[in-house]
Design goal:
Blueprint: E1 2-9, E2 15-20, E3 28-32, E4 37-44, E5 51-57, H1 64-78, E6 87-91, E7 97-98, H2 106-111, E8 113-114, H3 116-135, E9 138-148, E10 154-155, H4 158-161, H5 166-169, E11 179-187, E12 192-198, H6 216-229, E13 241-245, E14 252-253, E15 258-261, E16 283-286, H7 292-313, E17 316-318, E18 322-330, E19 335-337, E20 343-345, E21 351-352, E22 358-359, E23 362-363, H8 377-387, H9 392-398, E24 403-405, E25 420-428, E26 431-435, E27 439-440, H10 442-458, E28 465-469, E29 478-479, H11 482-485, H12 490-493, H13 501-517, E30 538-539, E31 558-560, E32 565-567, E33 571-578, H14 582-585, E34 594-600, E35 605-611, E36 617-623, E37 629-636, E38 644-657, E39 663-671, E40 675-678
Parallel strand pairs: 5-6, 12-13, 26-28, 27-29, 32-40
Antiparallel strand pairs: 1-4, 1-9, 2-3, 2-7, 3-36, 4-5, 8-30, 9-11, 9-17, 10-14, 11-12, 15-16, 18-25, 19-20, 21-24, 22-23, 25-26, 31-33, 33-37, 34-35, 34-38, 36-37, 38-39, 38-40
Length: 680
């Protein structure tokens, strides 16, 4: 094959924009722990016209808006080379990236509307990563390997899983998918290019009290792999690209110690995930570490170490033709033939009461509980008054789900949920990537993979490796099995197209697999094109006004200085007169907020040893009164650091008023005093 890899920054604004994932409007960005990247991989047939693009981006999910804008930009640049059928965009599902990049109204509620700078950063970052991969295509080889990852996940809805037939459960050793699949890429001389790992786990080691933008456990795994392969480079630099992509993670949590009541410390591993005192709001899962930062590193390192082992031992070569199959489907109206006598239908989208309960990884508001199959007259009445009552047809279709939001019947100012959804499979020889538009639970994913595999076999294509790539192309929440749907925990309440959603997807993906196996992808009907709403900027974010430094201080001045000496394991910290980091995101696509620098006696000059993409640094922004704000830069000094003289620097932009109606953006910087890091 011809193979190209690329990586580009897609971080966007790290302040004031609500983070996407826990649906908690209070959880706004307030700084940066690690940068977010888009990682692109292109595989093409040498001399042939067929090619595929797989992108894994460090974002909560790919929205339809992001996908449509990316495809538009690719068409303008490359004509018909990169299209909806051969480009897969997947989100890692970190819950600590900026939101606001959606066109459907439901997602505006918790992310303060459509935030253009966040959307642009993601779209431009994805396109740039594809550009880099496109420019670096070379002859190469692909290898595949699979193995088991231990101690890194639990099923967070085990009571739902138990609803699946015992005969089916008996075939599996665990209630989560522990298998990781790794695709290794090298050029024809054996030089390493990159890898994609698919593994099912929620990147929610960082909980909903976090305000620092970061890529969570899977992002930390990417960081470790890339740092190891791009020796001597700063984070985010170097040619080797390692993507840790999402899979069927719907009911899979990395918080391996399980759910406990925050107030009493007792277990709340019960069907309602509720505590005797304080109810559901108190029931939270704990990761393996002492705090969320440590848990993120432990889970990320587990995933990285397994991927590294599988990568090094990968010997099964992937060969054979490339193909891709794609359709747009009106998902609210799919007829599914369950058998020769039974046909069922999907529903207009709607969310159930337990959607508002959240999960043990991030609890909801107002003490809604999981597993409610009855509505609540109080909330139902408020909903009827504010948003309108669900139609009888929708109520009946979604049974036994009590509907909280009948999003498919809510269209102001735009529809609240997508109606037209992408289904897509890309095949690279014996590897079939199922790009799914949401979060399949463990068992739902197993059924989908099995159905697609047997479809390939029935048309004479044996030995296919089938992998699910999650959170692709458009976000449609969760997909549970029919049995899991009956008990209406969070994942089921968020299965928006009703109880037969999974059956509909299985039917659709079988159709795509058949087209690939029979080499008939040209004959698939493309389906109805999704809408691109005319929303330019609809946001409740505070506007960026002129800023001030305190009296007798300038931007970048030190307010609280570092100590003169530190040892490994300690935290070097300095606080500056700061400015809103959004100024920087809107002015420079590749803005770096901080550096850790070491003094070299050989060249008698300062050298950058870390940037803000490092997991050892933290950048905090806090807004004060009268247009003032502070920035704190931290360096958590790791074991084995080289002793010597260091300093911490900060780079920002402030808004300066030049006339009544005009402000300009002015760059500035600040530096701590030098300090000594001594040997332990």
């Amino acid at each position: 094959y011809l193979v190209g890899v690329g990586r580009a920054d897609c971080t966007g604004p790290v302040a004031q924009v609500p983070l996407m994932g826990y649906a908690n409007p209070e959880q706004e960005g307030g700084g940066l722990l690690s940068r977010l990247y888009s990682r692109a991989f292109i595989v093409a047939e040498p001399g042939g016209s067929r090619r595929l693009v797989f992108v894994s981006a460090d974002i909560g999910m790919v929205s339809q808006r992001v996908r449509l804008e990316v495809l538009e930009k690719l068409r303008a640049k490359y004509g018909e080379l990169y299209r909806q059928d051969n480009v897969i965009l997947s989100g890692t599902h970190t819950h600590s990236g900026p939101g606001g990049y959606f066109q459907y109204t439901l997602f505006w509620i918790t992310s303060k509307g459509l935030v253009r700078p966040a959307l642009n950063s993601i779209v431009n970052g994805i396109v740039k990563s594809i550009d880099i991969a496109h420019e670096n295509m070379k002859r190469g080889r692909l290898f595949i390997n699979r193995g088991t990852v231990e101690n890194s996940q639990i099923n967070r809805s085990p009571f739902s899983y138990l609803e699946n037939p015992a005969s089916e459960r008996k075939r599996y050793s665990s209630n989560t998918d522990k298998e990781m699949l790794v695709l290794k890429m090298v050029d024809e001389d054996g030089h390493e290019l990159g890898l994609i790992s698919w593994f099912a786990v929620h990147p929610v080691s960082m909980n909903n009290s976090n305000h620092l933008v970061n890529s969570d456990n899977v992002g930390y795994a990417s960081y470790l792999f890339e740092q190891e392969k791009n020796k001597g480079m700063l984070p985010g630099e170097g040619s080797f690209v390692a993507a840790f992509a999402s899979s069927n993670l719907g009911d899979v949590s990395p918080n391996t110690r399980g759910p406990f009541c925050a107030n009493t410390g007792e277990s709340c591993d019960n069907p309602q995930s509720t505590c005797p005192i304080g109810g559901a709001a108190m029931c939270m899962a704990k990761g393996p570490g002492n705090d969320m930062f440590e848990s993120t590193r432990i889970i990320g390192q587990n995933i990285y170490l397994k991927a590294k082992e599988l990568y090094e031992k990968a010997s099964q070569e992937v060969t054979g033709p490339l193909s891709s199959a794609h359709q747009w489907v009106k998902m609210s109206n799919v007829s599914v033939e369950l058998n020769s006598t039974h046909t069922v239908k999907t529903c207009k989208p709607a969310l159930g009461h337990s959607f508002a309960a959240g999960t043990i990884d991030g609890v909801g508001a107002f003490n809604f509980t999981q597993g409610s199959v009855e509505g609540d007259p109080f909330w139902d009445q408020i909903r009827d008054q504010l948003l309108g009552e669900p139609s009888n047809e929708t109520k009946a279709c979604h049974q036994p789900k009590p509907i909280l939001f009948s999003t498919g019947e809510m269209n102001w100012p735009h529809p609240w949920h997508p109606d037209i959804v992408d289904v897509q499979i890309a095949a690279i020889g014996s590897l079939a990537i199922l790009a799914v538009p949401g979060e399949f639970t463990t068992m739902a994913g197993r059924r989908l993979r099995e159905a697609v595999k047997s479809e390939f076999v029935s048309h004479g294509t044996r030995g296919m490796n089938v992998v699910i790539a999650g959170l692709c192309n458009v976000y449609t929440h969760y997909i549970t099995t029919f049995e899991e749907y009956q008990v209406q925990r969070y994942e089921a309440a968020s299965t928006i197209y009703g109880p037969h959603t999974l059956s509909a997807y299985i039917q659709l993906y079988r159709g795509l697999a058949k087209a690939i196996a029979l080499n008939a992808t040209q004959e698939l009907s493309p389906g109805p094109e999704p809408p691109l709403f005319n929303v330019t900027n609809m946001t409740l974010l505070p506007s960026l006004g002129a800023e001030n430094a305190p009296a007798s201080k300038a931007f970048g001045d030190v307010l609280e200085e570092v100590r003169q000496e530190y040892r490994e394991g300690e935290v070097a910290e300095v606080t500056f007169v700061g400015a809103n980091p959004r100024n920087s995101a809107e002015n420079a696509t590749e803005h770096n907020f901080l550096t850790v620098e070491r003094f070299s006696h050989i060249s008698s000059s300062w050298h950058v040893v870390l940037n803000d993409a490092s997991w050892d640094t933290r950048f905090y922004w806090s807004k004060g009164p009268r247009g003032q704000s502070n920035v704190t830069v931290q360096w958590h000094i790791p074991a084995g650091v080289e002793p010597g003289r260091y300093r911490l620097r900060y780079f920002g932009h402030y808004k300066k008023r030049v006339s009544l109606f005009k402000t300009i953006t002015v760059p500035f910087e600040g530096s701590s005093s030098a300090f000594q890091v001594t040997a332990p």
